[in-house]
Amino acid sequence: MRDLEEDLTRTFRAAGLVAPNAEPGFSVALTARRRRRARTRMAGAFAAVVAVAAGMAVLASPLVRQPDPLVRQPDLAQPLGPAPLPTGSLPTVDLSLSRPIRDLWPDAFVELPLRLPDGRRYSVQAELGGDAYLVVPWDDQKRFPPVVFDARTGVARELGTARTPGFLGYDLAGTYLTEHHIAWVVAAQDSHGARYVEVWSAPRDGGAAVRRAMFGPGDISVSVAEVGGVFYAGIEPFAGEGAVYRIPDAGEPQKVPGSEGYTLRYGPWAVHRSARSNAGNAAVAPVETPGFWNVATGERRTPRALSGVTLIDCNPRVCVGRAGGSLVSYGIDGSRPLRTSDDAVDPAGADTCDSCPSQINVFYDDSYGRFLQLRLRSGVYLWDRNTNTVGTQQDGSSGDGDVIDMGQPGGKQHLLLLSRIR
Length: 422
Known about the structure:
Layout: H1 4-18, H2 26-36, E1 57-60, E2 92-93, E3 99-100, H3 101-104, E4 109-113, E5 121-129, E6 132-138, E7 147-150, E8 155-158, E9 167-177, E10 181-190, E11 195-203, E12 210-216, E13 220-227, E14 230-237, E15 243-247, E16 254-255, E17 262-266, E18 269-272, E19 292-294, E20 300-301, E21 310-314, E22 318-323, E23 326-331, E24 338-340, E25 361-364, E26 371-376, E27 379-384, E28 389-392, E29 403-405, E30 412-417
Parallel strand pairs: 2-24, 3-28
Antiparallel strand pairs: 1-12, 4-30, 5-6, 6-7, 7-8, 9-10, 10-11, 11-12, 13-14, 14-15, 15-16, 17-18, 18-19, 19-20, 21-22, 22-23, 23-24, 25-26, 26-27, 27-28, 29-30
Helix pairs in contact: 1-2
């Protein structure tokens, strides 16, 4: 049951490409909830909800810290005044001339076996290099803890999740490719029926898996990030406000001061739960401008508004908005605005069904800045901001991160790996 949200998200996203548009806001609920539980960011992370009894205790176990230098960027805490936007003179990409992504980036496509050596199906989460992939096995009943699959040798390496004495079933509730590690979250149930959430990690290059922390019981979901070898966990309850915890090398997790009501959304970048986006409805009133807070460095960023652009969605590096019938993407500080042709979205305020605002879902690559995946009324597009190029995705293709699943024609898994696009 804790993988239901992920399954529904993928199913509705694929079905939405070939079905009539839903009422405004239908797909937003699934997309927004999934985005709230974002990781440090890994393709197709499983932001499953862990339903457990009320109340919360915190436990942890040690892990050797691997320090890494931090580079602090200038704060963008205070929103600047709207920047003028000469829309007509912006670099423009014509959606009607977009080519299939398979034709645009043929070197970024890979084919993998449909099943692991043990016969299980799997979902690819990230490319690890050297023909190795982080994958999550699954069957008709559940998803299993992640493994590393070497496509060249055909060997699948189990990362290992040892059950805590006295605990019963373990269900995967999230997978994250962090700075130096592979991390995953499992929901565990004790002999009294109380449910807890455990955070596990293993080094990317091999080594034993370690249980880093346990949270619960509580009606919570957990997201994970790593900065400088230090792990952070965002605790998001169904009821009440959550917080962000720093997980030390030893001892109990420590609440980050001032993090009440915040949730990790883009790696270490936290957003207050009151923040919302317009992804899914291009014609509604402007959204509350989100403020991004890096819980590791303390840096804060607030998107700069552009004159004439209605904000749809932002991450810590880039924003997407609409200007007339165009979509505009730009740096969070207002830099390098780019636009699509005027046929991207229907005009706002139209009062006929044929002109209803299109559903707009926005997904980002792992760097949160180069690639934008857009679902519009006219189709699904992949927008490369580096080259201002847009490719058309096939019906049913989906992805959130650096891996886009292109289906299984010919009994193989077909993937587009954004990390291979130069």
